[in-house]
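Batch manifest, entry 17 of 40.
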Amino acid sequence: MLTFFTAEMKESKIYAIPARFRRVENLHILLWLIKDACWATSFRTLGVIMIVPTLTVAIVIAWQTRRMLSEFLHNLAVIFWISANCLWMVGEFFGWDEGKYGLRHMALIPFGIGLAILAYYYIILAPNPKFRESMQKKTNQILKEELAQGFARHGE
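Output type: structure tokens
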């Protein structure tokens, strides 16, 4: 999930994101569920069609978070996860998922890339206090900019 602002309140933190980002995330969930429902019910044509909007919105989400490395890396991992998921689905739909080079096994490549991205984040970046502090400052700045743009768009 996107986390664009953290404010200390006693012992817990509050996460806030721009509403336009939340709408895109919610749309992405809907598209992903439709794609996977098509997979589960063997609606091949619609399932394959749903790959395009599902991946496109995942890319948009990653693009929106490109200035925040922590969020960007998670969203990049999601792109690889969806890509792997789509390979597997297409393999099952068209009988290309069996054997040593079946798409189900090929899906391990993007799954592995996504896992490597997150391993890098959690093993190298996240434990570093300077990185965490930098990301918190960036998120606060980005939220302030988003709020200012929102006020400017609405003439406030």
